[in-house]
Amino acid sequence: MTGDRCILAIDHGTSGVKVALVSVLGEVLGGEFAPTGIRFLPGGGAEQDPDEWWSALLDSTRRLLARGLVPPDAIAGVGCSSTYSSTVACDEAGRSIGPALTWLDSRGAPHVRRLMRGIVNVQGYGVSNLLRFIPVTGGGPTQSGKDDVAHCLFWREERPDVWRAARWFLASKDWFNLRLTGRAAASFDSATLFWCTDNRDAANVRYHPGLIRRLGLDPARLAPLARSTDVLGPLLPEVADAIGVPRGTPVVTGACDLQSACVGSGAVRDFEAHVYLGTSSWLLCHVPFKKTDVLHSIASLPSAIPGRWFAANEQDQAGGCLEFLIRNVLFHPSRLAPGAAPPADVWTALDDVAASVPPGSRGVVFTPWLNGEKSPIDDEHLRGGFHNLSVRTTMDDMVRAVFEGVACNLRWVLHHVERFCGRRLDPLNLVGGGARSEVWPRILADVLGRTVRRVEHPLHANARGAAFIAAVGLGHLRFEDVPALVRFDRVDEPCADAGTRAAYDRSYRAFTELARRMRPICRGLNAGSR
Fold this sequence. Notes:
2 domains; alpha+beta; Nucleotidyltransferase, domain 5; 7-stranded mixed β-sheet; 6-stranded mixed β-sheet; Methane Monooxygenase Hydroxylase, Chain G, domain 1
């Protein structure tokens, strides 16, 4: 290993594009960010503009390289990470045909349900379809309609102009790579949620013609498959010139955000787990076996590490719940609060308020299902709320309840992932923008009953993971070197206080009971609106 080279790491998330210069040994030398918008539409739509993504990439990269942190010839390569299950329809050169459908877009759900129903059904899936998909892929199109195949079905059924005009249907990470290199390719992990790849051999993933036919997809418009560590090609000359890196700089295929965060967290050995806290949240670890838990949406799927499996459960909203609280409740402009605007230190203020309230939020329980849920139940109709409010409840109690509600959902997720793995997962490495909170890691440790280790520079975990993957692909590093290169700046042990444990146990029991009781109620309220 040598640390004198670095990777230009691209981390595309829901809120914008972060770029960072990361040494091949994982040191974050500097980063820049450019925000992007999102449009929420009736019926479950959540769209973004790929041209805005590209402009954000160019802007943030130019600003980063203008800082002169390293000489241009020190940049060994480019590695990209992007949101899992955001999908772009584009032409041969990568010019988008209309908006991208993000991982929040559920408008394909009705088409998935029609496709996957049968005469005899389990969890809404026909038994014949379960037997067709699960042995080959490990899973199948989700009922929530938020994965890539559901987006393709939406275009086919409701936007035939997009369906006919597209040359490629690409996961967002693969779309960035096409724009960077001129070459279309999908990594084994980014292709998974099209649900037409044969994943029985994690080292040799291939498209499955029978599943492609069953889904009604066009195989000619699915990108060729590659390993995450494969060198896709050099930057296009015009792109290299536009961002200021040497022509010929290689681009490595890379991985989606779940996988990049996993590698960036240092949890790359089997049964080493990490928790990501961003707009959404997930818990993920590598496993040495292939199996599927249909009831709780957990499966062994191809990892960014060639030949390896990972198991994960992802919840739809985490930090997004705090953003909702800020935007729609605390500082929503209205006749009652004209000119309302959050202070510059709003995130610190939320931390301080939450810290002032005792564990258990004085009995208030928040359920974070603001956009349906993915796991451990898959239900796009489920909705969130504040529960057990009284005349003595304050906004401070409600703020802390949001932090704790996300933690309760993660405890629910952890329970089912540990049953899947057949063992206790402890410690948990914590990454993502939400990990910068000074109160959330403590709440997580206490609610989950696990040691929580915050990775240094948690906001850059995806970028660090993209850099590690690229460094392996370029021969500067091995995956087995990664754990020793990741440092922790905070470790929280579960609280030993019996009163705190009892308060969180009460909240968790109420949380899971609310999920059970609210599902039919929300389905009745939301089945026609999504």
